[in-house]
Design a protein that fits this description.
CATH superfamily of the largest domain: Galactose-binding domain-like
Shape: elongated
Number of strands: 36
CATH class of the largest domain: Mainly Beta
Strand order of the largest sheet: 12-13-14-16-18-20-22
Number of domains: 3
Structural class: mainly beta
Radius of gyration: 28 Å
Largest sheet: 7 strands, mixed
Amino acid sequence: MALTTFYYNDRPPTTSSDTIITTSSRPAVTTLALVEVVIGDTVTSIADNAFDTCENLISVSFILPSVLTTIGYQAFADCYNLEEINLPDSVTTIADQAFNGSNIDSFYISANLINIGDNAFNGGQYGNFIVDNNNPNYSNGSLGELFNKNKTTLIQYPTKRIDNSYTIPDSVTTIGSGALQLSNNLTRINFTNNITIITPYSVASCANLTEVYIGKGLTNIGYNAFYLCTNLIKVIFIGNAPSSVGSDIFLNTNANLKVYRYSIRSGWSSTFGGKDVLLIDTVSKGLRTFGFPNFSSGKASIKKQNLGGGKIKTNKLTNLFTCPFNINPITCPSFGLSDSGWGLGGSLNFIGTTTAPDNSNSAVIYQSAEAENSYVSQGFLQYWRPFTRYKFSIWTKLIAGEAAEGNIMNITRNGGVDRVVLPAIGNLTSEWQKFSITFTTGGSVSSYVTAFFAENFNGGTQIAVWGAEMFRYD
């Protein structure tokens, strides 16, 4: 009859060796159908590989009070069905790869557990991590992530989460090795501006990941960082090329994977990690990923104008930014998470300046070289409040030429589109006009909102653009 429950030393030890569980002190792996392990109250250490590859093991429990302090290297590695283990508060050390490949719903880390080895949880499925507030070295995130104490390093993402998008918290500067490995529900990951290091295998084997956004702070990508992300087709860099790049960062990814970057950034060549590098202007408009500028001076006024329909609520408005558009390329100071800049799509080109609506600054003039598919757009990387209304505005006027019908201004967010139809450019006058759109976020809020406007120019059409505002209704 197969052994299903293994009781180790639930009695006083007869020799000193009884205080340590080793591979030799358990039933042979080859004959083991072990489902449950109960660790006695005199055990001080679980040695390296003690329960390695016990594929049918589901539960590990401890007789309290426990004196266990150490869990060794790969002690429970590749226990693919291990769902429940509640470590006693006496444990101080978990060695490298101790729970690699496990399937634990909730993992508690006491105040005394102060040493967690490299890749201790990689390659497994975890529901969430709960860290005692008094732990001096570790902390958990709002989604159940495991971080170091100051939340500057993401150690392990809870891979059982069903979210399809994850924005790394702004405090994080380093993505630990394998931290996002096997996050198979994620289709998009947003690496914010403060992240400087993506370590080896950080995002490996994310089966459904299709797109990655990387902020301007990244300097180092470790080898095999995106290994075996077989559906990954878009990696968008906001900043300069990383100065240190490991080997095979895109090994066994999708054959159609492309890397996108902005023309104003430096250090790039025609390929990166063995993949073609394209300018961001060739990307779909929905991939604009810049941040809010932060202009706090002055008061901006909003007229009761809503081309999108509906009545604008006249409660308190918070000015998130006002951007003057008086330089080329259009850029603004950074706000919060990301660099700022406006993308020129299709064949739209900067050709000069004109007097701005305030009669003191300069506004930019753009000309379309060919019909249609020309636009100016901006993507905002920001933590949007759920169920909150925002308003975005720009000023524009016709300089010369005509435009095709169907020019629009829209906001894309959360998989839906709020759209305002602008007048055909041919109906615009030489006077400045302000166009606005309001939109309300949903309960599950994307970190990316993309605004774009002035589409479908006929060849030779010239428009002037000045200013941009984003307000929040508080």
